Amino acid sequence: MPREAGRPRRQPDRRHGPGNGSRDGPGTNFRADTIIFLAGSDIMPDCRLRMLNPEDLPAILSIERASFPGCPWTLEGFLAEMERQFSAVLGLFPPVRSMTPAPPSGGGGGFPPSPLAAFAVFWLLEGETHLMRLAVAPERRREGLGRTLLDAVLSASAAKGMERAVLEVRENNPAALSLYRSRGFRVTGRRRGYYEDGRTDALTMTLDLVPRGLGGGPGPG
After folding, report:
1. Would you list the domain boundaries of the chain?
2. Which of 30-39, 85-94, 118-127, 195-204 has the weakest average pLDDT?
3. Is the whole-model pTM more than 0.85?
4. CB 132 within 8 A of CB 30
5. Less crowded by CB within 10 Å, the N or C end of the chain?
6. What angle do CA 2, 150, 181 make, to 5 degrees?
7. Active site residues per annotation
8. Are 118 and 92 a contacting pair, CB within 8 Å?
9. If you compute the radius of gyration of the chain from its CA atoms, what whole number of angstroms results?
10. Which CATH architecture has domain 34-96+112-208?
């Protein structure tokens, strides 16, 4: 069977969450300068991006379970992704909707902290970015947060010298398909019966990345 276009030579399996790929290999160490690259991304005003850590796991799992109730990743799976040198778990913190100041704590005041609203898990392997997961909290959907986070991932990937981005998406997920197509992804393959029900196909989508400065916008759209 011919290799699907845009597939890596060592393909990670996304059906059952992280932990299927090797911890070692010809990946890119993303951690040291992630924030430097992402700082120049064209993100929404007042949104904050940062790498997530084990302290964020309760918020990550809440979004994960609401977004993928059929086959959510586990706490152990996310911990494994945080440990991999070539994996990034990136969080988006938009401004809070309510502008009511939080009650003073210890003599201090100010506005309440912004909760995690979306996260992405992606790998950098052999010149390709593999988007493993992208999820937005149900109460923060339809605000452009998924697009903002995807743009940040693509900007960082291009700045790191990745040549293309690859992902898999359910064929019956029109919202996700619309998002990815709006950023220039095209369908380059199909994996039949890929998901846990054994009936739903996965579409492989690929985007060719071009080198750009930190302030450049990722992809068309």
Report:
1. 34-96+112-208
2. 30-39
3. no
4. no
5. N
6. 55
7. 168, 180
8. yes
9. 17
10. 3-Layer(aba) Sandwich (3.40)
